Automatic annotation (TrEMBL):
Similarity comment: Belongs to the peptidase M14 family.
Enzyme Commission code(s) on record: 3.4.17.18
CDD domains xrefs: M14_CPT (cd03859)
Protein's UniProt name: Zinc carboxypeptidase
Organism for this UniProt entry: Nocardiopsis kunsanensis
Stored PROSITE patterns: CARBOXYPEPT_ZN_1 (PS00132), PEPTIDASE_M14 (PS52035)
Length: 434
């Protein structure tokens, strides 16, 4: 598909803007304001948090994203919170946007032991399997670049057997610096196992669905992110890149649908949004894609619905991200309306803002787009708590874990409910589900 016209008008409805409760992010100190073409002072070449003003719509935001930065949040007034290296900042300023720099507070960025490490995730899964052998089964679907087992957990009334039931997939932590998503995985697994037999709704859903939870798809990245005295603000995997000293690939720009098509990712290995050398070139993406493909039985994909959890911004997003168009090649009106209606239903439950992914800015090579276009899976990206950097950004205090993961219990159950026929939500079950 061609790239969207750079001067086209992006859709403005359903755009999500979240207002910061403080003037700067994560306890940072305001350093200064820069005009177009000015340079941001920096101690080194490490990425830092900056604010960008003057982006009026999704086209402007896409222009900024194409410099290779990570846009972390769009605030109420249109100001962007961006993770950017000094060279990226210069490029953004050269485009005519105003940039304000801030430096992270070491105290605010200190790793929180209340978050679950990868060894603790594995231990928790092993405990669930031991305690609920008739409900929970885990399998290793691959190894990470550094050799860690990648786990998929199946929850069903007969979890060691492939059954003729609709399957649902929940994935977490493609981006390492988003530890709340791992806690969401733990919450889903605990909710379904603890509720089975005592909660009628959960019991029925577990009996009539096969539920897959990938609790951490990027364990190398998450373990590195928590490895120092401060969080490392690490987004990518930890794999080597040929010809570069920069490590890692942005998993959520490495998927095979419209990979690198539309300026929604970076070809620079040093960028936070580096798309990799080829589709599925990241070890972890290839393994997860192979796992999803393995759920095809007799030419039919058994996974019908999915959520990929991220932070932050409190959004429910759906395909496509590579184009501003709602109806495009591979997405007809009924299919779009189904995503929209399910997204809005779930957002009504958790208080998030629902919208098409590209309503923020163009991305390409995302799991969101691949799951639908390549596998026909109705799917969503959840950007979890917080809604503002003042509440912790990527690293909110662990005392919010209970409340903020519970907030998504109802949306998870709603998606499970519609897994038998997502088109039921628009009244088209006879047309699409027979």
């Amino acid at each position: 598909m061609p790239s969207p016209h750079p001067h086209s008008t992006a859709p403005r409805r359903r755009l999500a803007f979240r207002k910061s409760l403080v003037p700067i992010a994560l306890g940072t100190l305001l350093i200064g304001t820069l005009g177009a073409g000015s340079a941001v002072a920096s101690q080194d070449d490490d990425p830092g948090l900056v604010r960008v003003s003057g982006a009026e719509n999704a086209v402007d935001r896409t222009e900024i994203a194409r410099t290779g930065v990570s846009i972390d949040l769009v605030e109420d007034d249109g100001t962007l919170l961006v993770t950017a290296a000094p060279d990226d900042v210069d490029e953004i300023a050269d485009l005519g946007y105003e940039v304000t720099e801030a430096g992270p507070s070491a105290e605010a960025m200190h790793p929180d032991d209340g978050y679950t490490s990868y060894p603790e995730v594995v231990e928790h899964v092993d405990g669930l399997v031991a305690e609920h052998p008739g409900l929970v089964h885990s399998q290793v679907y691959g190894q990470s670049y550094e050799g860690r087992d990648l786990l998929a957990v199946r929850i069903s009334d007969d979890p060691t057997v492939d059954q003729d039931k609709p399957e649902v997939l929940f994935t977490h932590s493609q981006h390492a610096r988003e530890p709340l998503t791992v806690e969401m995985a733990v919450r889903i697994m605990d909710m379904l196992t603890e509720g089975y037999g005592s909660d009628e709704r959960i019991t029925e859903l577990v009996d009539t669905r096969e539920i897959w939870v990938v609790p951490n798809s990027n364990p190398d990245g998450t373990e590195y992110d928590r490895s120092g005295d401060t969080w490392q603000n690490w987004r990518k995997t930890r794999g080597a890149n040929e010809g570069s000293e920069a490590l890692g690939t942005d998993m959520n720009r490495n998927w095979a649908h419209e990979w690198g098509c539309c300026g929604g990712s970076s070809g620079d290995p040093g960028s936070m949004t580096y798309r990799g050398q080829a589709p599925e070139s990241a070890t972890e993406v290839e393994a997860l894609a192979d796992f999803v493909r393995s759920r095809e039985v007799g030419g039919e994909q058994q996974i019908t619905t999915a959520i990929d959890f991220h932070t932050y911004g409190e959004l429910v997003l759906w395909p496509f991200g590579y184009t501003y168009d709602e109806v495009a090649d591979g997405m007809n009106q009924d299919e779009y309306d189904t995503h929209e209606a399910l997204g809005e239903l779930m957002a009504d439950s958790n208080g998030y803002t629902p919208q098409q992914s590209s309503g923020l800015y163009i991305t390409d090579g995302s799991i969101n787009d691949w799951l639908w276009a390549d596998q026909g899976i109705v799917n969503f990206t959840f950007e979890m708590y917080p809604g503002s950097p003042g509440d912790g950004g990527f690293y909110p205090p662990s005392d919010v874990i209970g409340e903020e993961t519970a907030r998504n219990e109802e949306p998870v159950l709603q998606l499970l409910d519609y897994a038998d026929c997502p088109y039921r939500i628009i009244g088209e079950e006879e047309t699409y589900c027979g």
